[in-house]
Amino acid sequence: MKNLLIRFVPFCAWLLTLTASARAEESKRGFYEGNLAGGGKIVFFVQGNRALSTYIFDVATHQADFGGGTVASNGTFSLTTNGNRSLSGTVTKTSVSATLNSVHVIAARVGIFGSSDDLGSRFTATAHSPGATLDLKFLIDSQGRIFFIGKQSTSVIGGFGIVSILHAQHGADDPPGDDHGQDSDEAEDHHQDQNDHEVSATFTLTLVTGQAMTGHIFFQHDVLVGDFTLNGVTFTFRAPHESSANRLANISTRGFVNTGQGQLISGFIIRGGPKLVIVRALGPSLANSGVSPVLANPRLQLFGGSTLMAQNDNWQSASNVSDIRGTSIPPTNPNESAIVIRLEPGNYTAVVTGADNGTGIALAEVYELSFD
């Protein structure tokens, strides 16, 4: 079944080029967070490389604000917030550089891995108390920071603080990406288990007006439920995860790598939303499983359509080697290659060659890492 799946994916990639116009590109999706003068924060949330939302927590003026706009193909944007503030700037894969009412701000993209990576996302809900309702958004990043924006009639409140994880468990007690040796049926079981992961936590934050808020949250089946207390009033809420839960657990292709046109090629498709993946090219470590002859020094290239998006030879030399280690599944041999990258929906191809024009058997693998 696994071999059938491996052969089917390149065909699907070819077919999709005839039937859809998915744009293959590295994703800028995620949180970008920066500081404002006076101790405040500004947060940008990018989806699909084109949709941008911003949340402003101005402690100096005791004002919370939000807005949304479109990112142009060159990364620039311009918008007016709910509080009539002008904001314009440029988004890159590492930061947002912007001008907020003539003041320059820089927001850095939040790291991929963190203590609360299972919980990190944006959640939207209506909170209810016995005598009032409150439209709200929670933004939780992978470093355990929480941001809150609430709107009641024309009033906007907001603040930021920290999340404390009490309990986190995956459906089968498996860490993300731990799919070594699975066949396709086992991968499907893993898919179901990952959707069932659960997290319980508490949070504390301070509004820009100085008021304290505390609460409890529980995340399971892509829904965040919980309560919080503000000014002595307890609100309850149910907030769906705003990102797709469809996941690719793992796909791999093994073959003989030759010179010239003898590369090992593995195609895959991203659908339903941006996906954080690790692509690995293994060779020397295959000898531990009795494979011979192995490719001694595999080199890995990742293409989006015909565009070279990333490449690596010897994973420990990668600029984001800490992210590769953080996946818990880096290659075991320093001569093997790996790429960690967040990809937009589209068609992709991993190409493995011998870095020294060597030949031998190699394995190309793709694992999805993120839940959002």
Task: Tell me what the structure shows.
The protein is mostly beta strands and 372 residues long. The strands form 4 sheets. The chain has an 8-stranded antiparallel beta sheet with strand order 4-3-2-1-8-7-6-5, with no helix packed on it. Strand 1 and strand 2 form a beta hairpin. It is elongated. The N terminus is likely disordered.
Label this structure with key terms.
372 residues, 3 helices, 51% strand, mainly beta
Q: Would you kindly provide a brief summary of this structure?
A:
The chain has 372 residues and is mainly β.
Helix and strand topology:
Elements: H1 2-19, E1 30-35, E2 41-47, E3 51-58, E4 63-70, E5 76-80, E6 86-91, E7 95-100, E8 103-109, E9 121-129, E10 132-140, E11 145-152, E12 155-169, H2 184-195, E13 198-207, E14 212-220, E15 223-230, E16 233-240, E17 250-257, E18 264-270, E19 275-282, E20 298-304, E21 307-313, H3 321-326, E22 337-343, E23 346-354, E24 360-368
